[in-house]
Specification:
The structure holds 2 protein chains of 2 kinds. Chain A has helices at 16-19, 21-53, 84-117, 122-136, 140-154, 206-236, 243-261, 283-309, 313-321, 326-356, 368-380, 383-412, and strands at 177-178, 182-185, 187-190, 196-199, 202-205, 263-266, 269-271, 274-276, 279-282. By secondary structure, chain A is mainly α. Chain A has a domain at 205-262. In chain A, the strands form 4 sheets. Chain A has a 3-stranded antiparallel β-sheet with strand order 1-2-9. In chain A, strand 4 and strand 5 (202-205) form a beta hairpin. The longest helix of chain A has 34 residues, at 84-117. By secondary structure, chain B is an all-alpha fold. Among the domains of chain B are: 38-64; 286-496, MetI-like (MetI-like fold, Orthogonal Bundle). Chain B has 19 helices and 2 strands. Chain B has helices spanning 2-7, 27-35, 40-65, 74-85, 95-106, 115-132, 137-167, 176-193, 195-214, 219-242, 244-273, 288-315, 319-334, 337-351, 360-386, 389-397, 402-432, 444-454, 463-491; strands spanning 216-217, 277-278. Chain B has a two-stranded antiparallel sheet. In chain B, helix 5 crosses helix 12. The model of chain B has no long low-confidence stretch (mean pLDDT 86). The chains are: A mainly alpha, B mainly alpha. Chains A and B meet through helix 2, helix 4, helix 5 and helix 12 of A and helix 3, helix 11, helix 13, helix 14 and helix 17 of B.
Chain lengths: 417, 496
């Protein structure tokens, strides 16, 4: 009877750390870890030594000192008596606001350009190709600087609008004006508004809260109407007409509320040496917004085009074979599949926009980089703390956006096998 | 029955001759109908598009046609345009480009030494030609011949034309362009007839370029190069005995010891014994496209190998290696490049040993390289993930070890898949070199333009400098993207 031989038990020898693949991984990792820790401690040690040499400490207490500088575009209440931390928050809000509007603008431009680039219209398709290639291959900084210089150096001065026969005229029937100082657009005004309440250090306008609440309620009510229509359709096979109900529910209450609040637009007008009234958009903001939108729009156009082209022709044909009309085919078959391809890179473009807002420093837009990493850093000399804090904030924003991508990806992933 | 059908009145007896298609269905009209006016919506789009084109061209073309090339200031340009074409008319003022183009190309590099960046740039094409056209000897030689002719011409131009004009005196070393052109021709011959020996030049190029651009003693760069030779030598000697990993580790340790500790003791005496030096040029003299290309090319060359290591680390089974790679990649990708550049200019003084102070361009290059490497690593990881599992298993079943499998099976395919992403990262990197202006370097876009616009003669000029820089960037970036498309087609091996 043959003896069932067990595999000989290897006794552990030192040489196995190098030659045995089971142990080699451990060896390599330990070496890497030791090297990295040595490197980090070297950096840390240097930093401590340097701080000691410069007679500095490492603390974030300076954030509570008086900032002492003004910020042109402050969307939360801010004066130069507020601490640096408040200035940081103003900067962060400016970053996020710019990023939000630039994402919006870039998406609109990009989707239009991407769809038109696939158009069968020869001229339009060529034009969009030129747009995409020109804007993708030239640095973003150039578009920012060019827009900014164009706005500040070629637009008329406010005094050109004065007098009987002015050298320049306002646009859109006197509602909008671009001078060399700012872009003035109409602003909302409430005649009998509800005022505002202080909350979390901000002045929260009750008008906007009321409008927000009404809009949310309208959308919710509209969904109920649609849901009921759907149920009736499923029961009887006949869908009741709902469009007028939807229209009424969506726009009726809001209009009534606006009327009750005495909503009207305030137009900019020339007072003294400058335009006043309405909303004055800083040129730094406008330049950043325009440049980021058209530059990133070119990238989004390519993403949209790739997404649409990724859907095989057979999908459309199959939909037609099922008897779907072209509009329904796009809505039910093409878009859901194309969006699966489009949205992840689209969100990473949003991430790029957010990071590129930091270029605002080139035109003096006071975003996070301009306040915390700019004036605060220069005034306090706290380079290490300011830079680390700024990196941490940008990193947090990025990680949140990446987390959104990951969640979306895992939700839409094709469920197969 | 057959006859009835023939006699029936409804059966045609003769064939009708071919007619031309209706007017609406042929030639230009048909093309217009199909491509521009196929539906009401398309017609509207066409008209809108045509209006947009007309609006742009009607502004741009007359402005360009009224260009002024010969003037000393913007005011003079404007006066000439008004005098020629009447009151209130504007025209392009390219006289600025004529007066300042050298700053857009070289920054404040000393004009007498312009031949050095020119030569380094020409040699760069010699160095990358074997990579660009690895399998096409003809294309390689055509490129290199063109570079030789253009580079020789440029050398003569800067030594005999540009430098004397800027300095107001002829350059002393008038023999230089002759000797250097001869050297270029010699190199071309080497590339044509001794391709293997030519690869030696490719390996030497980084040292040559560094020495040409920054100058100083030749022995410093040579000693750095000796470090790499040492690395290769130690690896060769030890790896058969210790295995690849330990051999590589020992080699790296030997090279690092050489660079950090021993090199200084060797290069000094060598310089004393055999003085060979070029006039050294400080980093703050660098600017314009010289700076952009220096940073861009170095960072591109450095980031690719680093990114491959990072991508492999991220795909690795080893937990610690993987965590470190992921952490590094996500950190770099999570912060804007500007903050990294400010780290280079402000924070490195904290992180390095007290009183070390090294070159700002070098610091920026290192940070830009790390930045690009993190993005590239993600691109390459995509390529690795797209590779079918069977390729890894096939490599294993052939008995290849990890590094051989990567080198021979995995990487060639993964890199091929990732070409579009890699090149678009390179393009992004090259465009991002303009951001160095924010840490005080003289990039062509913001740095040089602000210098030019600060001059009283050119104050208020804005379209021309941006058009100039934008065009140059467009040419380079668009060229890179077209090359990548051609490369993709050439490497395509599947049957689609």
């Amino acid at each position: 009877m043959a003896m069932a031989t067990e595999a000989p038990k290897d006794r552990f020898r030192l040489s196995m750390l190098v030659y045995d693949t089971r142990y080699r991984a451990v060896t390599i990792q330990v070496i890497v870890l030791v090297l990295v820790l040595m490197g980090l401690s070297w950096l840390f040690n240097n930093t401590v030594q340097n701080l000691a040499l410069k007679d500095r400490d490492f603390n974030f207490g300076f954030l509570w000192n008086r900032a002492g500088y003004d910020i042109g575009q402050a969307l939360i209440p801010y004066t130069n008596n507020d601490p640096h931390f408040r200035a940081l928050l103003v900067g962060l809000v400016n970053t996020l606001v710019l990023a939000f509007f630039a994402c919006l603008g870039a998406t609109v431009l990009g989707v239009v350009a991407g769809v038109l680039r696939l158009s069968r219209n020869w001229l339009v398709a060529r034009l969009m190709t030129v747009y995409v290639e020109v804007f993708r291959n030239i640095p973003l900084l150039l578009w920012i600087l060019l827009t900014y210089v164009f706005l500040t150096e070629t637009r008329p001065q406010p005094r050109d609008f004065r007098g009987e026969d002015p050298a320049a005229t306002m646009w859109l029937d006197g509602s909008m004006v671009v001078t060399n100082r700012a872009t003035n657009i109409p602003g909302p005004l409430f005649e009998n508004g509800l005022g505002s309440v202080p909350a979390l250090g901000l002045n929260v306008s009750l008008n906007f809260l009321a409008i927000l609440a009404v809009v949310a309620a309208s959308i919710w009510a509209n969904r109920i109407v649609l849901w009921r229509a759907r149920r009736i359709q499923e029961d009887t096979g006949r869908r009741p007409t709902t469009w007028w109900q939807s229209l009424l529910i969506l726009f009726g209450p809001v209009t009534a509320l606006l009327w009750a609040l005495g909503f009207h637009l305030e137009y900019p007008e020339l007072r003294g040496f400058n335009f006043a009234g309405g909303i004055a958009l800083d040129h730094a903001f406008t330049a950043m917004f325009v440049a980021l939108s058209i530059y990133t729009g070119a990238f989004i156009a390519e993403i949209v085009r790739a997404g649409i082209q990724a859907i095989s022709r057979g999908q459309t044909e199959a939909a037609y074979a099922l008897g779907l009309r072209p509009g329904w085919t796009t809505r039910l078959i093409i878009l859901p599949q194309a969006l699966r391809v489009i949205i992840p890179p689209l969100i990473s473009q949003y991430l790029n926009i957010t990071k590129n807002t930091s270029l605002g420093i080139a035109v003096g837009y006071l975003d996070l980089r301009g306040t915390l990493g700019g004036i605060t850093l220069n005034q306090t000399g706290r380079e290490l703390e300011s830079m680390l804090l700024m990196m941490a904030i940008y990193l947090t924003i990025s990680l949140i956006i990446s987390a959104v991508i990951n969640v979306y990806n895992s939700r839409i992933q094709l469920k197969e096998r | 029955m057959a006859d009835t059908s023939r006699d029936a009145a409804y059966v045609r007896q003769g064939m009708i001759g071919q007619r031309t298609p209706p007017v609406a269905d042929r030639g230009a009209i048909r093309w217009l109908r199909e491509n521009l006016f196929s539906s009401p919506l398309n017609a509207i789009l066409t008209i809108l598009g045509a209006l947009a084109v007309w609006y742009m061209l009607s502004g741009l073309v007359p402005w360009l046609l009224r260009s002024v090339w010969d003037a000393d200031s913007l005011a003079e340009c404007r006066a000439i345009v008004q005098q020629r074409y009447g009151e209130g008319v504007t025209g392009a003022c390219w006289a600025m480009v004529r007066a300042r183009w050298h700053q857009y190309i070289f920054g404040f590099y000393p004009p007498a030494l312009y031949w050095r960046p020119v030569l380094a740039f020409a040699l760069m094409f010699f160095a990358i030609a074997p990579l660009l056209f690895a399998d096409n000897r003809r294309a390689r030689l055509i490129l290199l011949s063109a570079v030789t002719v253009l580079g020789g011409g440029a050398l003569f131009g800067v030594v005999y034309g540009v430098a004397p004009r800027l300095l107001g005196a002829p350059v002393e070393s008038g023999w230089l362009p002759w000797a250097l052109s001869a050297a270029l021709i010699g190199l071309l011959g080497l590339a044509a007839f001794r391709p293997r020996a030519f690869l030696g030049f490719v390996a030497l190029y980084p040292v040559i370029a560094y020495w040409l651009l920054w100058g100083g003693s030749v022995w410093g760069p040579v000693c750095v190069l000796l470090g790499f030779v040492l690395l290769a030598l130690v690896y060769r000697l030890l790896s058969p005995h210790l295995g690849a990993a330990a051999g590589a580790g020992a080699a790296v340790v030997a090279a690092v010891v050489w660079w950090l500790a021993l090199q200084g003791y060797v290069s000094g005496p060598l310089q004393a014994a055999l003085p060979a030096a070029l006039e050294s040029v400080n980093s703050d003299r660098f600017g314009g496209f010289l700076l952009s290309i220096t940073i861009g090319v170095t960072a591109i060359a450095g980031s690719l190998p680093l990114s491959i290591l990072l991508a492999l680390g991220r795909q690795s089974d080893m937990l610690i290696v993987k965590t470190l790679s992921v952490g590094f990649i996500e950190f770099i990708r999570g912060v804007p490049l500007i903050t990294l550049l400010f780290t280079a200019s402000l924070l490195l003084q904290y992180f390095l040993p007290p009183r070390t102070n090294f070159d700002i361009i070098l610091r920026v290059i290192i940070l830009v390289t790390l930045f690009a490497a993190a993005y590239l690593a993600e691109v390459i990881r995509g390529g690795l993930a797209a590779l079918p599992r069977g390729q890894y298993e096939a490599a294993d079943s052939l008995g290849l070890d990890y590094w051989r499998a990567q080198r021979l099976i995995i990487m060639p395919q993964a890199l091929k898949i990732s070409i579009p992403g890699i090149v678009s990262t390179f393009i992004g990197l090259f465009k991002d070199t303009t951001l160095v202006s924010l840490v005080g370097l003289l990039d062509p876009l913001r740095g040089v333009t602000s210098v030019v616009r600060a001059d009283i003669a050119w104050k208020g000029i804005y379209w021309e400098p941006y058009i100039l820089v934008g065009t140059l960037f467009f040419v380079i970036c668009f060229g890179m993207s077209r090359y990548s498309m051609a490369l993709e087609r050439r490497l395509q091996t599947d049957h689609r």
